[in-house]
Automatic annotation (TrEMBL):
Residues 123-221 form the Acyl-CoA oxidase/dehydrogenase middle domain. Its cofactor is FAD. The keyword Cell division does not apply. Keywords: FAD, Flavoprotein, Oxidoreductase. PROSITE patterns: ACYL_COA_DH_1 (PS00072), ACYL_COA_DH_2 (PS00073). Pfam families: Acyl-CoA_dh_1, Acyl-CoA_dh_M, Acyl-CoA_dh_N. This is Acyl-CoA dehydrogenase family protein. Residues 233-381 form the Acyl-CoA dehydrogenase/oxidase C-terminal domain. It comes from Saccharopolyspora cebuensis. It comes from the Bacteria. PANTHER family: ACYL-COA DEHYDROGENASE (PTHR43884), ISOVALERYL-COA DEHYDROGENASE, MITOCHONDRIAL-RELATED (PTHR43884:SF12).
Amino acid sequence: MVDNRLSEEHELLRDSVRTFARKDVAPVIGDYYERAEFPTPLVRAMGRMGLFGLPVPEQDGGMGGDYFALCLALEELARVDSSVAITLEAGVSLGAMPIQRFGSAEQKATWLPKLATGEVLGAFGLTEPDGGSDAGATRTTAVLDGDEWVINGAKAFITNSGTELTGFVVVTAVTGTRPDGGKEISTIIVPSGTPGFTVAPKYSKVGWEASDTHALSFDDCRVPAANLLGERGRGYAQFLSILTEGRIAIAALGVGLAQGCVDECLRYVGEREAFGRKIGEYQAIQFKLADMELRAHTARLAYYEAAARMLRGEPYKKEAAIAKLASSNAAMDNAREATQIFGGYGFMNETPVGRFYRDAKILEIGEGTSEVQRMLIARELGL
């Protein structure tokens, strides 16, 4: 029989993150969101809790947990706010995991202990201004000149790339031509502050206002040849694998947002009165909340299954895509319904559901659009 009960360690982690989210994040995040300010004190607090090191081995300075533990933390954070959740998600799955999965012993020793404690954040430089979902359309180039890579190009929509904590960006770049005539794409570590590496002003975004996102440019940016991450020419394959496991983490974040909508609405319908009755007594509201809980619950089961297959070493590409698609749908639908239940108050940024509504849309775009997820599922079905 399938048993979805959490282990004692996972239960304790979930409870501690839930407490942190409600006591430390919830009271202040609205102000950060309104100012579009990166919440450095909250991020440092998450670092002290060990959240950035959850799936990092102990010998590398981490907590020695598993990827599912990261997902549980993301779900609980996103029940309160998605900006802090995506900061953690990107910091681990897109910042630390490439170093852990593909880094040399020296690269791991240099970066993983700092990444695991949240002392520094790593960023993931894949998307380009004209690339979008076509990650293979990389135009950024890196030419080996003696013992240095010379990088030229641009990246777009890069999370955690311009904070005071950002230590490096791992970028994909064309480093040559494959025997079949295609692009040879490699990944290279570019430390913050490297001459020729410019971080553009932060974007004015629809949502995730308290997270950090920038465009990046590289103009004859030189880094040591030893900054090549993994095998030359394997960058595209490396980042596809990183994105596949990252979809499970984003799914957990989406579930958290969907469940947060339920949480806020349950509180509100027990207080708000209309036509002489608490609105939670009306069947129309009850049915909305039943459907919202259904979406969150089924999306949670989807990411649990994908994470379980990943940890067992089984193929999980289809399950990760299903989880990402299901959670994105649940987040969007629940945010819309929550805003409707709150009425005019739901249109205000001062309410969590107003922020949930703004934050939900990016889940259908980031780390693989919903269309890409459908394409992956269809391919895994043999189509």
